[in-house]
Structure formats: C-alpha cells, structure tokens
Description:
By secondary structure, the protein is of the alpha+beta class. The chain has a single domain, classed as Beta Complex (Metal Binding Protein, Guanine Nucleotide Exchange Factor, Chain A), CATH 2.170.150. Helices cover 22% and strands 24% of the residues. The termini are far apart.
Amino acid sequence: MIDRRVLLASAAGLGGLVALRALRVGPAKAGEKFEIEKTEAEWRAQLTPAQYHILREEGTEPPGSSPLLKEHRKGVFACAGCDLPLFSSATKFESGTGWPSFWQPLDNAVGKREDRTFGMTRIAVHCRRCGGHLGHVFDDGPKPTGLRYCMDGLALVFHPATPSAT
C-alpha cells in the first residue's frame, strides 16, 4: 500500500519541477520565428548530442571544458547551428568564469530574452538567425560596454581570419 504522505510529497515535487520548467522560456517556446527553422530530427542529425543539448535545450557545458577558451587567434566566432558570425575575436576577453566571454556581439547577430530558470532572472542570448541558445549576458564585463557575454563554447565555431594577400 502507498503511504498517502509519500504520494502527496511526490506529486508536489513533480508539480514543482513542472512549474520550474514552465518558467523556462526557450527560443522555440517564445513563439518567435527564425530565418532558419528545422525539425528536432534535423537538428539532432546536424549537431552532436552535446551541441544539441546546449543550442536546442538550453543546456550548458562544464566550466573550463571548451577548447575555445584558449583560442586567441584573430577571427570570428560563429553559431554552431547555422554558422552566422556572432562575435569578433577583438571583443573576446579572459573573464575567469570558465566559458568564452566577449564584451560585444557583432551587429544584428544575437537576440536576448529573460530567462527565469533555477529561481533567478538572467538574460539569455540566442542566435538571431536559428534561435540556438548561446549563453547569457551579464553586466560585469570590461569597458567599453561593461557587458560579459558568457557563451557556451559548444554553441560556437571559430573561423580564423585569412591572411590578407599583399
């Protein structure tokens, strides 16, 4: 026989998880339309499981795990979902947070929205073309913007600058 208190506590816990999930408004749930839209199966076929988790499910990678932390060449960081250029290497800085950080995105590259996961309010950043979740922006960055775009490295691909022909 099931103890009524255990049943009620389990139902309350499940209800709490559902409520927390409802507070999360991902790009796909926000009702936004994007230039590039694919089915879940198409995204899964294109992305690695870890990239899918970050870009499509708003996951995050462990701090310090991205090879892009050590990327210091000149170039452009683009969306791993659609290859839209997002950040210039000239705006990358060492934040000490364990994720690639930038003080400014390229013009017309990202969208932002409120993220209320885990009982806190943050500003989530997504690719304006495909809606892929990239990370969050905080107001503790360096000059000139004072912003820190804290991005998941798996949400990005790096394209080194090509040497100019002289």
